[in-house]
Amino acid sequence: MANPRESELSYPLGDRLPAPGEVLEVLPGVRWLRMGLPFALDHINLWLLKDDVDGRSGWTIVDCGIHNEATQAHWEQVFAEHLEGLPVLRVVVTHFHPDHMGLAHWLTERWNCRLWMSATDYQLARLASSSTVGMGGEAAAAFFGSHGLTDPASLDKIRGRASYYPNMVPAVPSAFRRLMDGQVLRIGEHDWRCLVGHGHAPEHMSLFSASLGVMIAGDMVLPRISTNVSVVDVEPEADPLRLYLDSLERLLPLPADTLVLPAHGKPFKGLHERIDQLQEHHAERLAEVVAACTAQPSHAAELLPMMFRRPLDLHQTTFAMGEAVAHLNHLWLGGQLRRSLDEDGVYRFSA
């Protein structure tokens, strides 16, 4: 859903966008790339930071794009035309999702450099690239079925998505450098502090540079859409919404005029306003869920039309189901709803 309070944000670069294979300089030593995605959310923003490692000048890449020939070709164009003849010295990945992780193996092999990311998301990427985690296959279909998604055609398609993650992340680097909350990376002339975020991914790492006044936000704060916060089959009783809302609170001490570089959408200012908008958004959704479950016991699938007021394709439906369960679990674990497993094998929630 588009942000109804978007006018409270400002976009310092206006409507300028880098074409695939091209870059835009956001600030000296900070360059913006934009790669395509085969989804309704059709792009991801990636970043180049001027760097110096072990006495060598070059670049750090932040996030990678998915594994496909088109994205690799656009990266090769960037390497040929926009690196000033300097090498890539390291690859930083904010979290394990395929649009961020997909080409990490290829990039680190291409440049003989190291991957840097959180340990939790690194290990989850290794697991998911050889199987599937919450995104398809029999376990995912059973999980969605237990929350009311019983349409046979949809469940068959979900079972058929067992290779969803490996198709976009076919390999993961065999070694990495661990990023931890509060750790400071010296990238070129600037320090970047790691800011952990939970709820969207297990151990998402954003980067904040006080000297530049910039946060590379990954997916934690997006200007136009709300970050997906989902429950998945491997942790079915989780409360990722609480983790996500707590993570937003921890970003409030950052300066109000921080330039936010998001993974989707345009660079923007108005971090505190956006956090307020996201908190309001989830508060409204939680109130709607309580009202629906007060009127009658409800499962996640029947809440989708209320929570997502637009047509959803199957890819979007899987994320929407995960988010509906996240709101229900949050209210259930917080004592505002009761959960029952009915005779049809579906969980229903009531006030």
Sequence-ordered SSE layout with sheet pairings:
Blueprint: E1 24-27, E2 30-36, E3 43-53, E4 56-62, H1 69-81, E5 88-92, H2 98-101, H3 104-111, E6 114-118, H4 119-129, H5 138-146, H6 152-159, H7 164-168, E7 176-179, E8 184-187, E9 190-197, E10 204-209, E11 214-218, H8 240-251, E12 259-262, E13 268-269, H9 271-295, H10 300-307, H11 314-333, E14 338-341, E15 347-350
Helix pairs in contact: 5-6, 10-11
Task: Walk me through this protein's architecture.
It is a single chain. The chain has 351 residues and is an alpha/beta fold. The protein has a single domain, classed as 4-Layer Sandwich (Metallo-beta-lactamase, Chain A). Helix content is 35%, strand content 23%. It has 11 helices and 15 strands. The protein has a 7-stranded mixed β-sheet with strand order 1-2-3-4-5-6-7. It has a 6-stranded mixed β-sheet with strand order 8-9-10-11-12-13. Strands 14-15 form a two-stranded antiparallel ribbon. The radius of gyration is 20 Å and the shape is globular.
